[in-house]
Design brief:
With 298 residues, the chain is of the alpha/beta class. The protein has eight helices and twelve strands.
Length: 298
């Protein structure tokens, strides 16, 4: 009898040790498909790559990703993006990586580019993100996503775009009742904090190097342009956004890289999967209402 009890405890202990949790652990094989999500005319259209766990028969939380590249370059299916999308879909999320209009391709995005053109780039990207969300929700029989759990994420220009849509830009494309479940910005910033209030605040995760030389970590000019430059524009970075949410008593997760430059913008997609997963599982899906800050050295 004693040996049976011991055997049972060993088996139970092994089962507990190897127990895995959906949305936290990698449980699934992933399949990828490509879709056109918006057509402007017969020649011009936008595509997205959709990653989903195989064999799951329910509506899934959606993580929508927008690549960086100064609104003039970048691809939705580069190696880093594919690795990130596969890692998150293996945990049970639906993941969409989208292409969007790169309207700064012939203009650049530095101090010689007019501020109004930079704002137009933010607005255009926000519209394209909205088109993608609308398409995925509308075609539920194809994508099977939970429209109450849509999180947008991006790096660099993509981070500026998603934070802009979440906190600055009023989309005329998305349904009025639609509300994002969360936003993840990797080295992003916004033009104003004024519109972040108790009603608009959503769970927000922010990754940023404290010495970012292009997109300010706190509050400074975009690309640190001089006040007399055509592209002079004050931006409020991750530290400023986190401080605003902290003051409102709203959930946020600020991951600071002490001494990190803008080269850190894409690194969280490979090195911080655990932190992204933690945020999505606890703050978005389970409404933990945490205010989390972590700092690492560069």
């Amino acid at each position: 009898m004693k040996y049976r009890i011991i055997a049972f405890l060993i088996v139970f202990g092994l089962q507990s040790a190897f127990a895995q949790t959906e949305y936290l652990d990698s449980l699934y094989t992933v399949e990828k498909t490509t879709h056109t999500y918006h057509k402007f005319n017969r020649k011009d259209s936008l595509q997205l790559d959709f990653y989903k766990p195989q064999g799951v028969d329910k509506d899934l939380p959606l993580l929508l990703y927008i690549h960086g590249g100064g609104f003039s370059g970048g691809e939705r299916n580069d190696a880093n993006t594919q690795q990130f999308a596969n890692a998150m879909a293996a945990k049970g999320y639906a993941v969409a990586s989208i292409s969007y209009r790169l309207i700064m391709k012939k203009k650049g995005f530095g101090c010689d580019t007019k501020t109004k053109d930079k704002i137009e780039a933010f607005d255009t990207a926000a519209d394209d993100i909205s088109y993608a969300i609308k398409h995925i929700i509308k075609n539920k029989s194809t994508f099977h996503v939970d429209e109450d759990n849509v999180v947008i994420s991006g790096t660099s220009a993509g981070a500026e775009a998603v934070l802009h849509l979440a906190y600055v830009y009023e989309s005329k494309i998305l349904p009025k009742k639609f509300k994002l479940a969360g936003v993840i910005g990797m080295a992003g910033a916004i033009t104003t904090l004024d519109q972040i209030d108790a009603d608009k605040a959503i769970p927000t995760q922010l990754f940023h190097g404290t010495n970012d030389n292009l997109v300010p970590y706190h509050i400074a000019a975009h690309h640190y342009c001089s006040p007399d430059a055509k592209g002079y524009m004050i931006l409020h970075g991750s530290r400023a956004i986190a401080d605003r949410l902290k003051g409102l008593g709203k959930p946020y997760f600020l991951f600071s890289v002490n001494g990190g430059t803008h080269s850190w913008s894409g690194i969280p997609m490979s090195r911080c999967i655990m932190e992204v997963t933690d945020f999505l599982y606890n703050d978005v899906l389970n409404n933990a209402k945490r205010q989390t800050e972590r700092t690492i050295g560069f």
